[in-house]
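Sequence in, structure out. Go.
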Amino acid sequence: MTTAPVGGSLPVYRWRFAPEGLATRRQLRAMELRPGGQDVAAELQRPRRRRGPLVAYLYLIDLAKPVRPMTPRRWAALAKANRARRICPECRRDAGYVIATSLGMCVPCADSN
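Output:
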């Protein structure tokens, strides 16, 4: 997926001034839609004081497709992935919470090291 059309640049809108019919990925998801392979239609910029602006890409709502439904196999795969994130690689026990990547292990194991 490209971020700019060939031969030109994207239209840029300031924060809260985007026209109707455009939405960010999060806004599309809230409407139970997804971009569906379409190119970025425009760019939204939110100015900040001491750094460059925050940028969000906008997609056409008319070309968005419905979110794919979760099948039982997808739910099972998601549960397996989340379970793996709770297993401590040090003590191999289920921590009962998602282990922070900054620690790399459960809190008791991190405290003992």
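Check: The radius of gyration is 21 Å. The chain has a mean pLDDT of 91.
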